[in-house]
C-alpha cells in the first residue's frame, strides 16, 4: 500500500501505476516510495474549488478607518471600507454610534459591496463612530470602529 500518496483510503501502488497522467491536477499525488501517481478519491479531502466551497464564517479583509473631513473643502463623497470573506458570501449592515443605519431611508447613503458610501457628508448628521457587521449562515463579526470627524471649526 502507498498511504502517503493520498489522504483518504490508501491505494495500492501497482493499481495507480496504470494511471496515465495527462495533465497535472491537485487531485493527483505521487507515491513517495515508488514514484507512481495516485488519484485522490472524490470526497476524501476538500481541495481546490472544494476547499473554497467549504462553509465558513466571515473574516474581515478590510475594515473602516477614521476619516477626517476639512469643513471648508466641500468633500463630495466619503467611503468607509468593509469587505469580508466567507461562505456563504456575507451580507453587510452598518451602525452609527451603536444604532443600525437604515440605508434605504437616507438617499445619500449607498452600500457598494460591503463599503458604505456617503454622498455630500454633513457635519451634524454624519459625524460619529461607524461599524460594519458582516454576517452569513455560519456567524457574524463586527468591525473595529471607523470614525468620521469634521475638522476646521
TrEMBL record:
Residues in Ig-like domain copies: 64-149
Top-rank taxon: Eukaryota
Gene3D superfamilies: Immunoglobulins
Pfam families referenced in this protein's UniProt entry, alphabetically: Ig_3
GO cellular component: membrane
GO biological process: cell-cell adhesion
UniProt keyword annotations, A-Z: Disulfide bond, Repeat
InterPro entries: Ig-like_dom, Ig-like_dom_sf, Ig-like_fold, Ig_sub2
UniProt cross-references to PANTHER family, sorted A to Z: CONTACTIN, PROTEIN SIDEKICK
Protein name (Swiss-Prot/TrEMBL): Ig-like domain-containing protein
Amino acid at each position: 500500500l502507498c498511504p502517503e500518496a493520498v489522504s483518504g483510503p490508501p491505494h495500492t501502488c501497482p493499481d495507480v501505476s496504470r494511471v496515465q497522467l495527462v495533465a497535472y491536477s491537485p487531485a493527483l499525488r505521487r507515491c513517495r516510495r515508488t514514484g507512481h501517481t495516485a488519484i485522490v478519491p472524490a470526497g476524501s479531502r476538500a481541495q481546490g474549488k472544494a476547499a473554497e466551497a467549504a462553509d465558513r464564517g466571515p473574516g474581515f479583509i478590510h475594515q473602516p478607518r477614521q476619516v477626517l473631513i476639512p469643513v471648508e473643502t466641500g468633500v463630495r463623497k466619503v467611503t468607509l471600507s468593509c469587505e469580508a470573506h466567507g461562505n456563504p458570501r456575507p451580507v453587510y449592515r452598518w451602525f452609527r454610534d451603536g444604532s443600525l443605519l437604515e440605508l434605504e431611508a437616507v438617499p445619500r447613503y449607498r452600500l457598494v459591496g460591503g463599503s458604505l458610501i456617503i454622498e455630500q457628508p454633513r457635519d451634524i448628521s454624519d459625524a460619529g463612530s461607524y461599524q460594519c457587521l458582516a454576517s452569513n449562515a455560519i456567524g457574524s463579526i463586527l468591525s473595529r470602529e471607523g470614525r468620521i470627524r469634521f475638522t476646521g471649526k
